Amino acid sequence: MNARMYELGSRRSVIREIFEFGKKRAAEVGADKVFDFSLGNPSVEPPKVVEDTLVSLLHTDNATALHGYTSAQGDAETRRAIAEYIAGKHGVKTDPDYIYMTCGAAASLTITLSAICNAGDEVITFAPFFTEYRVFTQTAGAKLIELASDPDTFQIDFSLLENAFTEKTAAVLVNSPNNPSGVVYSEETVKKLSALLERKSRELGKTIYLITDEPYRELVYGGVKVPYLTAYYKNTVVCYSYSKSLSLPGERIGYIFVSPEADAAKELYLAVCGAGRALGYVCAPSLFQKMIAKCQGAVSDVSVYERNRDVLLKALEECGFRCVRPDGAFYLFVRSPEPDANAFCERAKKYGLLLVPGDDFGCKGYVRIAYCVSPEMIARSLPYFKKLADEYKK
Ligand code: PLP
């Protein structure tokens, strides 16, 4: 068998380990004494229009067409609806023939990385980052170059990025709103990044693509804007997913959008189709593609997350914990009060608080708290966070 695949399959992710521990612990001490902040599973229901659309689609007299194969790159009507929606919402050039339907952001990323990278290429990303980026990049034959972010803001540290490009750099991979920090890249960051990518592409005599991983685009609070990157840098590929915006992570639906203005856009899109074919990611789930065509612009009630963020952030800050203010997604990335975040997480476990150490996100000394949980659980957990904080004041 393939040793790398065995390794990936047999080594469970830290997040999964914690989740399993939580279930075991709940059986021992009672579910009301376990506060599982480990998983990024949406806690808000999908909007009603999703159910209504699915029901009306299922009441068809042509079930063979509804459940049958679509084109490998996705149903034409769905791709048209998405292209029209992006153009209308963000004022950028789109084209249905540059959209590829996928099984969520994970598939969007693996396909895009395989479409862009050749063996030995480098992909630059910024810590903290989604843990699977290492796996996805390696599978595409490339190497992930991990750069620290500005620790005060978690925006890009341009002094590090300036010197990170080599002849092997194929792409820069960004994720805003970010998992695990919740930080949204400002327009200033995006403008600087675009200008730098243009300059480095010129200097190196090649196109450096920007890959933007956007499952949290709609999960932003307090009117914060998430700049649409194809408007700033033409060589952008958007990896989108409905997992979080429509609370449908188990249904596996998303898309890739190659900017039609990118260099060699047609060829890049064909490489995306080729990578989808090579990886077996053709024809994303048909029922959900057809639902998506009719639900553009719909979003789950994200005000629930915003309230959770406000309550938890205020309480943790009052206890003395520190974190960069998150404007989006549903995570807090809190500085560990001791240098070893794993040790801190072990202490938190004593109080039933299940947090994830930041190490696997490329950022030691932090923990991730996923606040996509019930407001009641947050309220019940607060006295325990206080007790945990007090341990460090002794
Ligand atoms: N990218 C980021 C930053 C994520 O947080 C996740 C899932 O949590 C994914 C990609 C994968 O998303 P999907 O479930 O749509 O495959």
Give a structural overview.
It is a single chain. This protein is an alpha/beta fold. It folds into two domains: about 5-45 and about 300-394, Alpha-Beta Complex (Aspartate Aminotransferase, domain 1), CATH 3.90.1150.10; about 50-295, Aspartate Aminotransferase, domain 2 (3-Layer(aba) Sandwich). Helices cover about 45% and strands about 15% of the residues. The chain is built from 14 helices and twelve strands. The strands form three sheets. Strands 2-8-7-6-5-3-4 form a seven-stranded mixed β-sheet, sandwiched between helices. Strands 9-12-11 form a three-stranded antiparallel β-sheet. β5, α9 (about 185-205) and β6 (about 210-215) form a beta-alpha-beta unit. α3 packs across α11.
Number of domains: 2
CATH topology of the largest domain: Aspartate Aminotransferase, domain 2
Cα Rg: 21 Å
Shape: globular
Q: What letter string, H or E per element, gives the SSE order?
A: HHEHHHEHEHEHEHEEEHHHEHEEEH
Into which percentage range does the β-strand content fall? 5-15%
By DSSP (H or I, 4+ residues per run), the number of helices equals 14
Biggest sheet character: 7 strands, mixed
Mean pLDDT: 97
The residue fraction in helices comes out at 40-55%
Spatial ordering of strands, largest sheet: 2-8-7-6-5-3-4
Structural class: alpha/beta
Q: State the end-to-end distance.
A: 53 Å
Low-confidence spans: none
The CATH homologous superfamily of the largest domain corresponds to Type I PLP-dependent aspartate aminotransferase-like (Major domain)
CATH architecture level-2 label of the largest domain: 3-Layer(aba) Sandwich
User: Number of DSSP strands?
Assistant: 12
CATH class of the largest domain: Alpha Beta
Bound molecules: pyridoxal-5'-phosphate
